[in-house]
Amino acid sequence: MTDNTSSDVIPPSPSDADYKDSAGNFLIANAADPIALFNAWMAEARESEPSDSNAMSLATVDTDGRPDVRVVLLKSISEEGFAFYTNFDSAKGDQLKANPVAALGFHWKSLSRQIRVRGEIVSVPGEEADLYFASRARDSRISAIASDQSRPLPSRDVFEERIKALQVDYEGREDIPRPAHWGGYRLVPASIEFWQAQAFRMHDRLKFTKKAGVWTSERLYP
């Protein structure tokens, strides 16, 4: 049975005129260092998309081999990898404990670009997590302590009462400690692929792969 209702909400395929409007997109420049190229693209995205330009889709795998995905925020990038923070006892935390591998997806519509990253997951050192936690807004730190992320919530009132109680406990204090159940993960990249849209689906793809500590690159068909 065909569902004809989707035509009312799904955008149509681009027309010739739509493609001609995007014909000026640049090809990806050859580069030796994918981290440097990522930083350059992120800097452009921050100017083009000021609202959560560091948002990324994080894909994990559960113990049954079923994929899961959600959007989180990238908090640091270095030669060591891509760091993000979460509740260790959340669904993503449980999945990363069982299968410490993941994939990331960045998409910047305004630039017609995306980046895909795959690799292994390691924990961010506690000292590094402490520094990031201390940099967060005070109420964000309190909500991280109060939340049993991903577990059933009897009612919103229960959560809000926890937060109120913690606000009383920490009244007048800025030295709110990072809870043991909250910290960071770092994806250590094994591959990074850059994608730049081109007219008529002739997209440009540049993939970097790391072997024995050395990055190599190749172009891929769109």
Describe the protein:
With 222 residues, the protein is α+β, with helices and mostly antiparallel strands. The chain has six helices and nine strands; from the N terminus they run H-H-E-E-E-E-H-E-E-H-H-H-E-E-E. It has helices spanning 16-21, 34-48, 91-98, 126-135, 138-146, 156-169, and strands at 55-61, 67-73, 76-78, 81-87, 101-108, 113-123, 182-196, 204-211, 214-220. Strands 1, 2, 3, 4, 5, 6, 7, 8 and 9 form a nine-stranded antiparallel β-sheet that branches. Strand 1 and strand 2 form a beta hairpin. Helix 5 (138-146) packs across helix 6 (156-169). The longest helix has 15 residues, at 34-48. It starts with 15 loop residues before the first helix and ends with a strand. The mean pLDDT is 93.
